[in-house]
Amino acid sequence: MSTVYEYTAKALDGKEIKLEQYKGNVMLIVNTASKCGFTSQFAGLEKLHEEYSKRGLSLLGFPCNQFGAQEPGDSTEIGAFCQKNYGVDFQMFDKIEVNGDHAHPLYKYLTDKAPGLLGLKDIKWNFTKFLLDRDGNVVKRYAPNVEPADISADIEKLL
Questions:
Q1: From CA 108, how far away is CA 145, in angstroms rounded?
Q2: Among 36, 57, 96, 131, the one annotated catalytic
Q3: Which of 7, 66, 87, 88 could form a disulfide with 82 if both were Cys (CB 3.0 to 4.6 A apart)?
């Protein structure tokens, strides 16, 4: 596949979502987990969503259980946790794998377009973030320890 818009992913409610619906928006794509040391970043991600969604930011969360089994729940539990604890209103998707033979095709695309440190493609941990411009180009990859607020300036430049 040649653009991010050619991918689909299943939402927490089971509905297939075509990423082409985000065409023309800036996207921030994040692999998440409910029981991670970085889980509190949900609050910062929701704040970015609230601040920038009306200006064209689409925030997409992809739960993943590949790092320390820190996302053990099913889609109902994940959705309830995110809503109850962080008021998450941005689009959350069904649990996926981000590395290995069973990695979601979207993540194979993202890691190919924006390798990490030393050119390594694998996602190293939960809350790795990818920022895409309005044309669907991957602009930057952020390590898990980068707080959502620290991405604001980069988002502003793209909006």
A1: 21
A2: 36
A3: 88
Number of domains in the chain: 1
C-alpha–C-alpha distance, residues 140 and 132, integer Å:
7
Which SS3 state, helix, strand or coil, does residue 111 take?
A: helix
Q: Are strands 26-32 and 129-132 parallel, antiparallel or unpaired?
A: antiparallel
- Taking only the tens place, the pLDDT of each residue in 54-69 is 999 999 999 999 999 9
Per the annotation, the verdict on 64 as an active-site residue is no
**Nearest of 89, 6, 13, 7 to residue 52 by alpha carbon:** 89
Question: What CA–CA distance (Å, rounded) separates 90 from 83?
Answer: 10
Look up residue 103 and give its two tokens. 């990695």
The average confidence (pLDDT) of the chain is 93
Nearest CA to 29 out of 99, 117, 92 is that of 92
Q: How far apart are CA 28 and CA 45, in angstroms?
A: 9
For 90, the domain range is 4-158
* Paired sense of beta strands 26-32 and 16-18, if any: unpaired
90: CATH: 3.40.30.10
